[in-house]
Amino acid sequence: MAVDCLFKHAHLFTLAGEGVGYIPDGAVAVTGNRIIAVGDTNQVLADLAAAGNGVIKQEIDATHQALLPGLIDAHIHTQLGLLRGVAQDMHDWMMQGVLPYMLELKPRWQILSSQLTVMEALRAGTTTFGDFLVFPDPALMEFYLSSGIRVRPILPVFEIGPELLAGGKLYQLDDHMGQASYNEALRLYAEYHGAADGRIQCMMGPFAPDFISEKTLVKCKDAAAAKGLPIQMHTAQGDRETEQMEMRYKKRTIPYLDEHEYLDPEFTAVHMTMANNDEVHQVAEAGSKLVVCNGSIGLIDGMIPPAIPFQEAGGTVGLGSDQAAGNNNCNVFNEMKLTAFFGKMRNQDPTAMPADRALRMATIDGAKALGLEDEIGSLEVGKKADLILVDTRHPTLQPVIEDPFNLTANLVYAARGNEVSFVMIDGRVVFDDGKLQTMDEDAVIQEIRETVPSRRKKVGFM
Amino acid sequence: MAVDCLFKHAHLFTLAGEGVGYIPDGAVAVTGNRIIAVGDTNQVLADLAAAGNGVIKQEIDATHQALLPGLIDAHIHTQLGLLRGVAQDMHDWMMQGVLPYMLELKPRWQILSSQLTVMEALRAGTTTFGDFLVFPDPALMEFYLSSGIRVRPILPVFEIGPELLAGGKLYQLDDHMGQASYNEALRLYAEYHGAADGRIQCMMGPFAPDFISEKTLVKCKDAAAAKGLPIQMHTAQGDRETEQMEMRYKKRTIPYLDEHEYLDPEFTAVHMTMANNDEVHQVAEAGSKLVVCNGSIGLIDGMIPPAIPFQEAGGTVGLGSDQAAGNNNCNVFNEMKLTAFFGKMRNQDPTAMPADRALRMATIDGAKALGLEDEIGSLEVGKKADLILVDTRHPTLQPVIEDPFNLTANLVYAARGNEVSFVMIDGRVVFDDGKLQTMDEDAVIQEIRETVPSRRKKVGFM
């Protein structure tokens, strides 16, 4: 078996085992879409020679590069990218801020939003997207295929539309909408699940416990179980949800989900900012996962998501950028940094949420939160070849010191994302030489500039 | 009078008056090192023609660029840049984390540190540095001159050395060290104050109230008053300081400084994380300024600096990155973002510390904190030509929407710093075409890589 690509002499972060798995002079060998060797460069070269692996088609000298697993954005709505910055520094962000614009996003703008978001994220080393769809759309699936990204499309089921805007009252749930979105979710599942040799793998996405009826909640769980799909759901995400749950069911969200047997290892909750400590423990102890979106929740709510208590209860926490409309960033480096900062703030303790933990949350723990830990999240033999190089010669990452080792801290606290020099997903190069290899970036930016007028005109969707 | 450089068709943020002074299609004309016209592009062109200003030597079409005053890092120790990431996620950062390495920084590494820091900062649009010297050194002053940056060198006076490491006890102050550093401060002042047509203007820097004797505190104030220099001082920056002040003087820091008539408009306090609410009000009401370092204090202490209460008391607050050794970043975009986030966290309110306020803190308020508001901090006729262009075509800043206006929010929450495309200081281009025009960046990085060994060796200064 020939080696398609050998990376050598890297600052290698395998993220295998405990800690960050640092190997000072490391190598990774890739054949097809899989990793076939990982370790010290000399050892890997010797092992490959001894195994008679034959020709090495391409060698990449990664001296001065950090080599990491591709970063994982475990919760994002790529379709909202064009709303970056339209709703900021305000109360009632969802109802008054983003929803009025969101509802007016034309299908073409939804795709441009996803393209813009993916451009930003890929250039910052994100290789896997837990993309929670807002608008179920086959065109988005086709973009996943062409762009080369790894995606968990989270197929949304919802029974609520603009009525949401009428605050305070119990929402009118729309059974027809619920049925239609459920059917569309199953249709997209049937057509795209497992596509591109498993690069596209769906999840079931009952939108939020207050956005669907009890009947639909059960139906989603049953369908997910039947098809072996994990579930991701916005959970305990705000006062509004708590109020709705108490009005409709006389229960808080977590007990309600528990009663419907949602709290199991196949379930990933997003946000949980409104969960109390007992509820955080209950979800973690059930083996469910959590995705926190520090940038988004910080700006939208001025709150710190419960990553630390969830971890203290033994749970696994991944990171999500949520969307450009609230966070303004779709950049896992940004999330790592904010997650570490917010942890320290929460505990008023600089040792809280250290850099190595944030890096794990952006990689292997994110993979667990998406149910993909057997395939990605660390650099190990047999896993998919999703990896990035980060050029340490940028001023922001200098100097690199071995003892005391400073590179983990600098990747988390100093890197901005633009130090990423190379991205491979599923064995395919998608970013190199400063350019995305699978998208016409200039065309995307130009179309955005031409169709989202910038000056002295009301934007079409506004 | 000819125009040396005319910027036109920019998204212009003048920062003049209240708010951010946005002009959708704006122009700035520069002659020599001064701004001679600012406003709507057509108006500026008409005014220049009517005034018979003659030839326009260079026109820069800034369509798709945000044009801003150069950013102001009002408190930074550039000489610690090589310590990036060596002391992280720990308690007792100063004593146990950074000081052991700092004391071993050879003079050449001190200069390399400053060069690295300035490279990072200039590329992120910082034009003015409140550089609090750790090691008084004429070579640093020469670097200021050659690099073209605007600097308030804050000339340090201190009477304490490695004894600091003995925690808990009252420090031994060293009168000889105080005398020597005071003399060196005055020598550097005499040689460099006002150099490069005022681009270098010194401040007096009694290091911290617990680092100098009462006698030296008074001497610094007298010298500053005699020479018309403002004072910057680390103030109420930690438990250790409070303990020392109470042991030595039976007083807390702010009453002690008040008693010595430090609290006046010529005084800028840095940090004040340990000041209580009454003390914050007292300092603000005296007309003294505050510089907060959110990135640094957040990582080092897990604390939120008192920017909001200081502003509520009517005070002016600038931003500082402090140093790479604790913050890991010397990037005012990063400080703007963290300042806004931390404000929202502090108040648990997403409307707290809005984007436009953060942008003012990074520009005009930073200028006030350095006593330079008559020269810089906004784009107004007669001010020095310190300005930056930020390319909005980066994915991180797309789209640009006029209504609802999203660019201020995106500059603060989305920009990473690397979107800066052009930097002019004092009428001189220092960054353009992706390269610093006044420094050999590759040579700096190469020397760092060669002299700060990265692998499997103890670093010399460690």
Set out the fold topology.
The structure is a homodimer.
Chain A: E1 5-13, E2 22-31, E3 34-40, H1 41-50, E4 59-61, E5 65-69, E6 71-76, H2 93-102, H3 107-123, E7 126-132, H4 138-147, E8 150-157, H5 175-192, H6 195-198, E9 203-206, H7 214-227, E10 231-235, H8 239-249, H9 253-259, E11 267-271, H10 277-285, E12 289-292, H11 294-301, H12 307-312, E13 317-319, H13 332-347, H14 355-361, H15 364-369, E14 387-391, H16 407-414, E15 420-425, E16 428-432, E17 435-436, H17 441-451
Parallel strand pairs in A: 1-4, 1-5, 6-7, 7-8, 8-9, 10-11, 11-12, 12-13
Antiparallel strand pairs in A: 1-2, 2-3, 5-14, 14-15, 15-16, 16-17
Structure description:
The structure is a homodimer of 462-residue chains. The first copy, chain A, is α/β, with parallel strands linked by helices and 462 residues long. Chain A has two domains: 5-69 and 378-426, Urease, subunit C, domain 1, CATH 2.30.40; 71-369, TIM Barrel, CATH 3.20.20.140. Helices cover 37% and strands 20% of the residues of chain A. Chain A contains 17 helices and 17 strands. Chain A has helices at 41-50, 93-102, 107-123, 138-147, 175-192, 195-198, 214-227, 239-249, 253-259, 277-285, 294-301, 307-312, 332-347, 355-361, 364-369, 407-414, 441-451, and strands at residues 5-13, 22-31, 34-40, 59-61, 65-69, 71-76, 126-132, 150-157, 203-206, 231-235, 267-271, 289-292, 317-319, 387-391, 420-425, 428-432, 435-436. In chain A, the strands form three sheets. In chain A, strands 1, 2, 3, 4, 5, 14, 15, 16 and 17 form a nine-stranded mixed beta sheet that branches. In chain A, strands 6-7-8-9 form a four-stranded parallel beta sheet. A four-stranded parallel beta sheet of chain A has the order 10-11-12-13. In chain A, a hairpin with a 2-residue loop joins strand 15 (420-425) and strand 16. In chain A, helix 3 crosses helix 17 (441-451), helix 13 packs across helix 14 (355-361) and helix 14 (355-361) packs across helix 16 (407-414). The model of chain A is unreliable at 455-462 (pLDDT under 50). Chains A and B meet through helix 3, helix 11, helix 13, helix 16 and helix 17 of A and helix 3, helix 11, helix 13, helix 16 and helix 17 of B.
